[in-house]
Each structure stands twice: as structure tokens, then as C-alpha cells.
Design a protein that fits this description.
Bound molecules: zinc ion, manganese (II) ion
Structural class: alpha+beta
Shape: elongated
Oligomer: single chain
Distance between the termini: 72 Å
Mean pLDDT: 92
Radius of gyration: 30 Å
Number of strands: 17
Low-confidence stretches: none
Number of helices: 15
């Protein structure tokens, strides 16, 4: 039997405007509870909202980056539901006329590009937060209430948790490139809900869609999808169906748990927001925003391949985030070989970032220092192997390569006089290897070079050692 997984996503992303969507309160994360609030975002009687033009602009920017059609006329609507963190008893959102219609995000699926279609992107306000205290009580913080969001809704075009992860990565990278959202999942500025079900391709039977909510990391999202994929397949195997419900991921139990049965759109009693006028969006303004869009990840990748003559794979990795791409370009400005810069960045630098759980912006290593470091290797002052240790130190401390090399006495020995004793000693102690080499076993030479490297604590210049050993063998 063959099963096909069907996944659609809804992503909420907080916009980086300074003030909230309908008032002038700050959007800054955190702060003492209920200090970033005013009568408007607290929904006090008589307070009237006014739309923040930047929010509309950022929404349009996102729509343009994802190839959506921007509405020339749109409006805000009320979505009514009761929840303690929703202070007004309704959320001002968009219902039937979203700001951006359609569009797509292109992902790489097993080296084949695949278009994930978007249904819509709309703008809306964020809710407050419930804080559940240990004694069982709940407190409410409305600092987040009225922070602007875009909601991106996809078509159910993803067919594996891996594809969904690819999509999320691409979406996040683009939103950060165009500087409309910082997408910090740990601060809740990017949140993702998942709709998932499975079809039995032989019988055409499909399970009812399950909604997964409140996934706070891509890792959790992937695990939850993998869990649901298995659960739905098992249901099909047993001839059963899933229940229409919302589930959440339990990090500790490694399973999804039922939260509640799912509401229908009708339950929200949407109607046009009477306190806000309709919005007219002129084409001139849309074009102005389009012209200001920065280079997008895909275009940057193509440019890197051409301009720096690096492999497509490298260009893809280096353009994953704007920050990493900038780091690479800054490094190359110091006239180092782009492929060498790419190798060190993709290897040691990214590994360090992953191990230390840091961001590129937090690196103590500067592009200038990295360029100097690469030059040290090019000039033969340190070996590639010693380089691995030096760059680790540079990443840990932010010190320039030269200082580390001097402090630790790591300068490569390229002086024949200094190396002569070690080379002769190694040759004297390994007569068999010399016989082997003379009998055509080239590997024996590698072994001898290795012994010299070991005795010199990795500091000997291997090319020179190679040459010296051959000279001595031919003289004997
Ligand atoms: Zn306010
Ligand atoms: Mn929403």
C-alpha cells in the first residue's frame, strides 16, 4: 500500500514595526507585564483603532517577496471568540479580502525545485499572553496585545514533514531578508500551525485533517508531523478515521495530545470592523515598495555562483541568511579566494555556531580576521591542520589569528635546518618503510611524513618534509 501525506501550514509572524497595529504602544518583546498598553490595545470602551501604515507596507512587502497579488481594495474584519488573552472578545483580522492573494514559495525537494502555493497572506493583531502560575492561578499580560502579525496560509502542497521544514526555513529566511520579521521562534515572533492528513493512494480513502497548534520550534514541528503521519497511517490500516480536532505536541512525552475539537469559520461570526474604514492601495505605492525590496535569497544565490565562481551547494548554504551571506561577502572583500572562505565558513564557522547555539550576528570572529587567517595558511605560516585549532580559538575568543599563533607557538616550521634532525631521526627509526617505498609502496612515504608531523606537533610544513624525505632516501 502507498500512503501520501498531505500538509498545509498557517504561519503567524510578528512584524518588526516600532508601534502596534492600531495604537502607538511599543511592540518591544518582554517588559514588565501590562506596561506596553493603552486604552486601544486593552479594548477599553470608546477607544478607537487607527491602522498603522507600516503594517500594511510590511504586509505588501511579504506579498511581493512571495509572488502574491496585492489587493487594491481591502478591509479589516472582526473575528469573534472568547479567550482570556483576547482582551476585546474579538480579534481584528481579515476575512474575505486578504491583503495578499495567492503566491508561492519555491523549495528544493531532492534537488528538484517545487512550488508550494500560498492561499493568502493577511494582516491582523496578536493576542495577549496567559501566564499560568505554579499555585494554579492564571495571570494575564497584554503587552503583546495588538502587536502586528501577518498570517501566511499555504495550500496543502507539502507531502512530507521534511518538505514542510524546507518551506518553513525558506519562509523564515525570506521574511528576515526583507526585514519585516525577526522570526525569533523562542520569543514567539514566528509560530506555526499545521494541518495534516494521509491518503491511501490505492483506495483513495483519506483521513480527516488534524490540526497541530503551538509548535514553538521547527524541530518540534517536524517531530509532531512525523508522529501524526504514523498515527494517520495506522488509522487507515485499521479501517478507521481521525476525529476533527486540534492537538498539540508534548515535548516530554514525544507525542501529540488532544487540545479541543476544532471550530468552524461560522463559529467566529466574522463581520467587517466598523471602527476602521476600507483601505485603498494604489498601484504606485505597490511599485514603490517593490522597487525598495532587497535582493532575495534565490537571486543572491544565483549571483554568488556567477560572481564568486563557487559551487551551487556553497551558494545555497551561504545565502540561507542575509547575515551569513554578508559575512561571506565581507570576508571576500579582503581578497581571499572565495572557495577557501566558503569552505571555512561552511565547515568550522557554521559548526561552531550550531554547537554553541549562536547566531551569525553574535560571532566574535570578524570577516577581516577570517581573511587574515586564510592568508596565513596561503602563505604557509600555519598548516591547514593547525588552522583547525586556530580558528576554533578565534571563534571562542575573537582574537586575531596572528596573536593566537604567536601565543601558542604554532608557526609552521618551513626551515630545513630546524626540521633536519626530526626527519633524519624518523628515517633512521623506520628502515622498513624505506624498503617498502623503494619497492613501490607509495603509502610508506605518507607514513614517514606523518611521523615527522607527529614529532613536530603538527608544525612542520608537510610539503617541505615530503621533499626532504625523498632527498635523503635518494642519497642513501
Ligand atoms: Zn496600545
Ligand atoms: Mn490568525
Amino acid at each position: 500500500m502507498t500512503y501520501k501525506t498531505i500538509i498545509g501550514l498557517e504561519i503567524h509572524s510578528e512584524l518588526m514595526t516600532k508601534s502596534k497595529i492600531f495604537c502607538s504602544c511599543t511592540t518591544e518583546f518582554g517588559g514588565e507585564a501590562n506596561t506596553h498598553c493603552c486604552p486601544v490595545c486593552l479594548g477599553l470602551p470608546g477607544a478607537l483603532p487607527v491602522i498603522n501604515k507600516k503594517v500594511v507596507e510590511y504586509g505588501i512587502k511579504a506579498g511581493l517577496a512571495f509572488n502574491s497579488k496585492i489587493a487594491n481594495e481591502t478591509k479589516m474584519d472582526r473575528k469573534n471568540y472568547f479567550y482570556p488573552d483576547l482582551v476585546k472578545g474579538y480579534q481584528i483580522s481579515q476575512y474575505d479580502i486578504p491583503l495578499c492573494d495567492g503566491g508561492y514559495v519555491e523549495i528544493e525537494n531532492e534537488n528538484e525545485p517545487k512550488k508550494i502555493r500560498l492561499r493568502r497572506i493577511h494582516i491582523e493583531e496578536d493576542t495577549g499572553k496567559s501566564i499560568h502560575s505554579e499555585d494554579g492561578g492564571s495571570l494575564l499580560d497584554y503587552n503583546r496585545s495588538g502587536v502586528p502579525l501577518i498570517e501566511v496560509v499555504t495550500e496543502p502542497d507539502m507531502n512530507s514533514p521534511e518538505e514542510a521544514r524546507e518551506f518553513l526555513e525558506k519562509l523564515k529566511a525570506t521574511l528576515r531578508y526583507i526585514e519585516v520579521s525577526d522570526c525569533k521562534m523562542e520569543e514567539g515572533s514566528l509560530r506555526c500551525d499545521i494541518n495534516i492528513n494521509v491518503v491511501d493512494e490505492d483506495t483513495g480513502k483519506r483521513t480527516t485533517i488534524t490540526e497541530l497548534k503551538n509548535l514553538n520550534s521547527f524541530k518540534a514541528a517536524v517531530k509532531a508531523m512525523e508522529y501524526e503521519e504514523k498515527r494517520h497511517i495506522n488509522l487507515l490500516k485499521q479501517g478507521k478515521d481521525a476525529v476533527r480536532e486540534t492537538r498539540r505536541w508534548d515535548e516530554l512525552k514525544n507525542e501529540t495530545i488532544v487540545m479541543r475539537s476544532k471550530e468552524d469559520a461560522a463559529d467566529y461570526r466574522y463581520f467587517p470592523e466598523p471602527d476602521l474604514v476600507k483601505m485603498k492601495i494604489e498601484d504606485d505605492w505597490i511599485e514603490e515598495i517593490r522597487n525598495k525590496l532587497p535582493e532575495l535569497p534565490h537571486d543572491k544565490k544565483e549571483r554568488f555562483i556567477k560572481q564568486y565562481d563557487i559551487p551551487e551547494y556553497d551558494a545555497g548554504v551561504l545565502t540561507q541568511t542575509k547575515e551569513l551571506a554578508n559575512f561571506f561577502e565581507e570576508t571576500v572583500k579582503y581578497e581571499v579566494d572565495p572557495k577557501k572562505a566558503s569552505n571555512w565558513i561552511m565547515g568550522d564557522v557554521l559548526r561552531w555556531i550550531k554547537d554553541e547555539d549562536k547566531e551569525v550576528e553574535e560571532l566574535k570572529l570578524t570577516p577581516k580576521n577570517l581573511a587574515e587567517f586564510i592568508s596565513l595558511i596561503d602563505e604557509g605560516k600555519i598548516s591547514n591542520n593547525i588552522g583547525k585549532k586556530v580558528i576554533k580559538d578565534m571563534l571562542d575568543t575573537g582574537k586575531p589569528a596572528n596573536d593566537i599563533v604567536k601565543e601558542k607557538g604554532l608557526v609552521q616550521i618551513s626551515d630545513e635546518g630546524e626540521l633536519k634532525n626530526i626527519v633524519e631521526k624518523v628515517i633512521d627509526e623506520n628502515e622498513q618503510s624505506i624498503i617498502d617505498y623503494r619497492n613501490g609502496k607509495d603509502r610508506a612515504l605518507g607514513f614517514l611524513v606523518g611521523q615527522v608531523m607527529k614529532m613536530s606537533k603538527g608544525k612542520a610544513n608537510p610539503q617541505l618534509v615530503n621533499k626532504m624525505i625523498l632527498e635523503i632516501i635518494s642519497e642513501r
